[in-house]
Design brief:
heterotrimer; A: 11 strands; globular; B: alpha+beta; 9 helices
């Protein structure tokens, strides 16, 4: 008994030791990547990038960056976008990382108010459309964007008799024929949920949005906690009862790309009518107190480069702010963009968020 | 190799110690207990349950700390010696066999504990096995080595417990009511065995020094060289069994021994002329210091009046109240001056019928004993 | 014995667990609370009283306690019969059953929600069946977004706690005590009420406390299955912290949560002191019998059916979903579901050349390594703590520390996670980005489980046995190794299984501090679930099935480690 117990303890400790060794092993291709030949190989510096847990990039591209600047890039993911930002704010002055990526326009003001970024006038910003550059002081630099739009199940609407067209506007959702068809996410716990609430505020104005939600409630809107539950449980495509869901304009294209079996066309579609979508823009910035500001600048330039930007859709399901980046075949074929999104300024979001959220939950949940 | 217990006192908080003011509720378990155990001697701590004898064992073993007093081994205090370094053995009343170990491992337990580190394993293992075999043989458990202790009968468990406590050759073995849970026949057989085991705890060995705790008179008298009689946390008398039986020092001892013919007596006079006055007569009590005493009339030292009187004998008249036949003896109850006294006669004595008058004769020197208190 | 371990010795025993808790729990917690209150405009006392007086707070606190209490009662109602079955009877497949019942504990909430919806959702099997049977158009059972869903999920998750903690204790309770009661004229019900349950009460209380604390700080279940109409303190703390960045309010809510936990734990400690008593425990060989009578078989059948329906059916549904294809082939409008291994095959392909692509084998390895480290760490810290608690339950140190040990279970993960960031950021302890932080965080959660599983077992060892060992010359350390550890061997394995499963299934803290290149299985599952596309969903299901296998395999492995020796 005793022997077994201790051998088990020892085994656990050994495994624990392996655990610290094992990840190092997976990184070996990185460490042994051939160093630039010209200079004598100095030990690579480390650049740490803090981000949310949806961050993804291709290994090939990252290795190129690492080789070019003799740097080892350490990515830290810190929960969802909100949690990651909070961590960055609390670590202010003794930052965990050199660069933070992943604050969007709904959180931008919080980041700027907490003053966690150092300004960086990247030359790459020149080619970026002004509509994305929300911080005039260039502390937070736009990297990508995505549109939160209503998605619907094409098969559901095709199968309805008498025939029912998919909704064409937010107002349509109040009609009796769309009763019980919509699922949205709770704006308090979900980022697309908040985006859709902001879309309704942008469209109906602060005076009108609550009436719209009152109407939605009367029309039996369903509220899920997050995108995963809405899309994979409540949405009819996943076996739920709701054929209309708040998702992204990119979702239909990814239904084709990540289909079980090759598909000819997306089984879902996004409603792209004017002022039905909200545009989320994600920003990156160099954290105050970074000891590697030079590398941080290089990283931001890298993220804004066409090569990195071009990969964004397939890696992170968002779209490049750099117009030079070209979308791949299937994407350009299946993704549509709204002409006019319903927008709310970051400052207004920051100032009014709590009030809007509590008014919303008062109206929809109570 | 002797144990000395000096002036041990110990109190416990009352078992129902909850609520305010509980601290005041202190029950003394031992009060100034002192005695000695000589090498090779078996001392029985005898007394009714609750007299503190188990607490005494726990203190000697080191399982409890005394409030006052000390335990000495060869004159050295054991106060700072932890339980496992005292080299004593204790056989528990409920045996406390280790349920996860078999018979062999239970018995070998103490030997393994005391094995010096870095010893040649092979040599010590052989020595260990032979010692275990020896005590198992001694306790009649040869062949039980691999048995699961949970399957043993009460008598077998008792033997394993004894073997386990003997195996490490303790300097002092303490046995806490070791036969308490066994039936009468088994107990009587084991008393004899136990004494011989303690006298010869292995070949070429000196007799085992032991303290034997019991509430059973018969066990104590037949096993022990000396008896420590305890009551309510105090020592009443210490002495060899015969000495205690023949000369009970206190009223309690007399009663505990079953000597119940105790008559209150008042002592008067001076020096060698002092006499004691009781309900059944006056007797000499030379040199007796106390004024109020008990006079014990031994039940087996009285004869029926044969019509013949002697100068030194005393005479009592009474009425035969009961008579019961006990094999070799008859127990009778006689009412004398309103007091019922018990006596013992040989079975062949011819007794008057119950309810009739009876005359009793006794020699005060043999039959009477003055007990203080 | 008492003299062998003086006050200094007692402190020494406590030192390792206390140092650990101090450094990785109290220090970060105090730091984040202090910082949060520092950000407020008013004093924290004022804010606390204002918050406490607010009807909204009272509603949330009330609901949190109410749902946790109800969940705990239901979990006991399911877990106790199951504990009885596994404790008192020998039957084929018991080890497998025990392994399977541990799986719910490790499943990510999102996956569990999906599993329940497949069964009970508006278009779940049960509703479809009932609709066909009753010939109605609308689903008769409303599941998601109800209190029932929350309760069911809590029972699903926590039954294993009751089954293991109580079952272990029960399996060694001397059946002769119950037999004695029967002989004395008690009927089965009286025996249960007057003998068995009182004797089991320390284990039941310990299990109930753990279950309650888990339900009390429930987050994912409330959000996902309960929906937005329900909020516990934990959910509110998350909303205030992440959504609104109102740190002072979040800190006040954290304080309230901690105060509730502390009050409950103190009440538990007092109760445990009163109800635990040394028992002579018996090896299972003597306490368990085969299922021979029809009465026993019927009872066993009923309990097994309940367990399978509640715990195993949803899991089976998930496993099935990972091999069933639901999409039509190209050009076909209708489809028949077909079997496929595509999802598993796809797991092994790094289609996007992603930096953080992790082959399933690697994720399994990482999960197992973290779990093993958690088991080692929490046992080596928990054993001395449990030992000290069991030996001197009345000592001032024990009275003080016992309730404190449980606090990590009642602490919001978000609060503590942020505490790590601000407190562990200075050399030599800059652990903020270290993968070591994960087993440390898991150990914080596992530690109370380890202590609670070991303490009742240690307390129930008759002091006589230790005295007998001491008389035979065993030092306190030898007594621990030769008597205590072997006698509580089973409890050590129960503790190990808890630590293992807690680490394997933990998601919240792991996601907050994970390094993307070392994802655990739940983190990897979540990655797939957060992307659109049937292939991603299928892969999430496939990884979930793998997680179940890893969990069951780990349980069986731990069980077999124990198997060889005598049943103690």
């Amino acid at each position: 008994m005793k022997k077994l117990f201790f051998s088990f303890l020892i085994l656990s400790l050994l495994l624990a030791a392996c655990q610290s060794a094992a990840p190092a092993a997976t990184n070996t291709p990185l460490a042994t990547a051939p160093a630039p030949t010209k200079t004598p190989p100095a030990a690579p510096r480390t650049l740490t990038v803090m981000t949310h847990d949806s961050f993804a990039a291709s290994e090939r591209l990252l290795r190129t960056f690492e080789q070019q600047y003799n740097v080892k890039v350490q990515i830290l993911t810190s929960g969802d976008a909100g949690s990651a930002l909070n961590k960055a704010i609390l670590a202010k002055g003794n930052p965990l990382a050199d660069v933070f990526y992943g604050v969007d326009n709904t959180f931008l003001s919080r980041a700027l108010k907490e003053d966690i970024f150092e300004p960086y006038a990247s030359p790459a910003l020149a080619g970026i459309p002004a509509e994305f550059q929300l911080d005039a002081q260039q502390r937070a630099l736009p990297i990508d964007y995505g549109d939160v739009c209503l998605n619907y199940d094409k098969a559901f609407f095709a199968a309805q008799s008498p025939s029912l067209p998919p909704p064409q506007s937010l107002e349509d959702l109040l009609k009796p024929e769309y009763k019980g068809l919509l699922v949205v996410e709770n704006p308090a716990t979900s980022s697309p949920g908040l985006a859709f609430l902001l879309a309704t505020i942008g469209h109906f104005g602060e005076d009108g949005y609550l009436d719209f939600w009152k109407g939605l409630r009367a029309n039996d809107v369903k509220v899920a906690d997050g995108w995963e539950t809405a899309y994979y449980t409540e949405f009819t495509r996943a076996g739920g009862t709701r054929p209309i869901v708040v998702s992204y304009n990119s979702s239909p294209a990814f239904e084709v790309i990540f289909a079980e079996k090759p598909l000819d066309e997306p089984p879902t579609a996004a409603l792209l009518a004017d002022e039905t979508c909200f545009r989320q823009i994600e920003f990156a910035g160099i954290l105050k107190g970074s000891k590697n500001r030079d590398l941080g600048e290089k990283w931001i330039d890298f993220m804004l480069s066409a090569a990195f930007q071009q990969e964004l859709p397939l890696q992170m399901f968002v779209f490049p702010v750099n117009p030079e980046a070209k979308l791949g075949g299937k994407l350009s074929q299946y993704v549509g963009f709204p002409n006019k999104t319903a927008n709310v300024s970051p400052d207004a979001i920051d100032a009014r968020r709590e009030q809007w959220l509590s008014a919303w939950s008062e109206t929809v949940l109570k | 190799m002797s144990l000395t217990v000096t002036q041990i006192s110990k109190s416990f908080e009352s078992a129902i110690s909850s609520g305010p003011g509980a601290a005041a509720n202190v029950l003394p378990a031992l009060r100034g207990v002192s005695f000695e155990v000589q090498p090779g001697e078996i001392v029985a701590a005898l007394g009714p349950s609750g007299c503190g004898k188990s607490t005494l064992l726990a203190i000697i073993a080191g399982l409890e700390t005394p409030d006052e007093g000390d335990v000495l081994w060869q004159g050295k205090s054991l106060r700072s010696v932890p339980v496992h370094r005292r080299g004593f053995g204790l056989m528990f009343q409920d045996y406390a066999l280790f349920p996860h170990l078999n018979v062999f491992e239970n018995v070998a337990f103490g030997l393994r504990m005391t094995q010096p580190k870095g010893h040649n394993r092979l040599v010590t293992d052989t020595a260990l096995a032979s010692r275990v075999a020896e005590v198992l043989q001694l306790t009649g458990l040869a062949g039980f080595e691999r048995r699961d202790v949970n399957t043993l009968s009460g008598g077998e468990q008792q033997r394993v417990a004894l073997a386990r406590s003997l195996a490490p050759r303790p300097r002092l073995l303490m046995l806490d009511e070791p036969l308490g849970a066994l039936d009468r026949n088994l107990r009587q057989r084991l008393i004899g065995e136990l004494r011989s085991i303690l006298r010869h705890p292995g070949h070429d060995e000196t007799p085992q020094t032991a303290i034997y705790v019991t509430h059973d008179l018969e066990e104590a008298f037949s096993l022990a060289d000396r008896v420590v009689l305890m009551n309510a946390g105090q020592v009443e008398q210490i002495g060899a069994p015969q000495e205690v039986y023949c000369r009970p020092a206190t009223r309690f001892v007399a009663q505990f021994l079953g000597l119940t013919n105790l008559l209150p007596g008042a002592v008067y006079g001076a020096g060698m002329e002092r006499r004691v006055k009781t309900a059944v007569g006056e007797f000499p009590a030379p040199g007796c210091a106390a004024t109020n005493v008990s006079v014990l009339l031994r039940p087996d030292s009285v004869a029926l009046n044969q019509g013949r009187s002697r100068a030194q004998t005393h005479h009592l008249d009474g009425r035969l109240a009961a008579c019961s036949f006990r094999g070799s003896t008859c127990q009778v109850e006689v009412v004398i001056q309103g007091q019922t006294l018990g006596f013992e006669f040989l079975a062949n004595t011819s007794l008057p019928a119950v309810g009739e008058e009876v005359s009793l004769w006794f020699d005060p020197d043999q039959a009477l004993q003055i007990i203080q208190g | 014995m008492r003299r062998a371990i003086g006050a200094g010795g007692r402190l020494a025993v406590w030192s390792a667990p206390l140092a650990f808790l101090g450094l990785f729990y109290f220090y970060p917690l105090a730091s984040i609370l202090a910082l949060s209150f520092g950000r407020g405009e008013r004093g924290w006392m004022e804010l606390l009283f204002e918050t406490l007086a607010a009807p909204a707070t009272q509603r949330v606190v009330g609901f949190t306690i109410w749902q946790a209490g109800l969940s705990t009662l239901l979990t006991l109602a399911v877990g106790l019969p199951a504990a009885y079955l596994t404790a008192r009877y020998r039957f084929r497949g018991k080890a497998l059953l025990m392994a399977l019942t541990a799986i719910p504990f490790v499943m990510p909430t999102l996956v569990v929600a999906a599993a329940f919806n497949a069964l009970l959702g508006p278009r779940g099997w049960l509703n479809l069946g009932l609709m066909a049977l009753l010939r109605v158009e609308t689903p008769p059972i409303e599941f998601s977004g109800t209190l029932g869903a929350i309760l069911l999920a809590h029972v699903f998750y926590n039954t294993t706690i009751v089954l293991r903690t109580v079952g272990d204790f029960w399996s060694r309770l001397d059946p002769r005590l119950e037999q004695a009661a029967r002989v004395a004229g008690a009927d089965r019900w009286q025996v249960l009420r007057r003998v068995t349950l009182p004797l089991l009460s320390p284990a039941i209380a310990a299990a109930a406390l753990l279950v309650f604390l888990f339900d009390f700080t429930s987050f994912g279940v409330i959000l996902i299955l309960g929906g937005p109409r329900f909020a516990t303190l934990e959910v509110e703390i998350y909303n205030q912290t992440v959504g609104l960045f109102n740190l002072p309010l979040a800190a006040v809510l954290s304080l309230i949560q901690l105060a509730c936990t502390l009050a409950l734990t103190i009440a538990y400690t007092r109760l445990a002191e009163r109800i635990s008593r040394p028992l002579s425990l018996r090896p299972q060989t003597y306490t368990q019998k085969p299922l021979t009578t029809w009465r026993a078989r019927l009872a066993a059948g009923t309990i097994l059916l309940l367990l399978s329906g509640l715990l195993l059916l949803p899991l089976a549904g998930l496993a099935a979903r990972s091999v069933i294809r639901l999409e039509a082939n190209r050009g076909e409008s209708s489809f028949t579901p077909g079997l496929t291994l595509d999802f598993y095959r796809e797991l092994t392909i790094n289609r996007r050349g992603s930096l953080f692509y992790t082959p399933p084998a690697t994720a399994i390895g990482i999960s197992l390594a973290y779990a093993a480290a958690t088991v080692g760490l929490s046992l080596s810290l928990g054993l001395p703590a449990a030992w000290a608690l069991a030996r001197q339950p009345q000592a001032a140190l024990s009275r003080l520390f016992d309730p404190l040990l449980m606090l990590p279970l009642g602490t919001s993960a978000v609060t503590l996670g942020l505490g790590f960031i601000i407190s562990l950021g200075r050399p030599p302890l800059d652990l903020r980005a270290s993968p070591l932080l994960i087993p440390l965080a898991h150990t914080l959660v596992a530690f109370p489980f380890v202590v609670r599983s070991l303490t009742p077992a240690l307390r129930s060892i008759r002091p006589r046995l230790r005295q007998a060992a001491a008389m035979a010359g065993a030092s306190p350390r030898q007594i621990l190794v030769k008597i205590d550890l072997p006698l509580i061997g089973r409890a050590v394995f129960v503790a190990a299984t808890f630590a293992f499963t807690i680490s394997l299934g933990e998601f919240g803290a792991t996601a907050l501090i994970a390094r993307p290149e070392y994802p655990t299985l739940p983190v990897a599952i979540y990655r797939f679930l957060s992307r659109p596309g049937a292939l991603n969903y299928g892969q999430a299901m496939a990884l979930s099935a793998i997680l179940m296998l890893v969990c069951a395999g780990g349980m069986l492995a731990i069980e077999s480690l124990r198997g060889g020796q005598s049943e103690f």
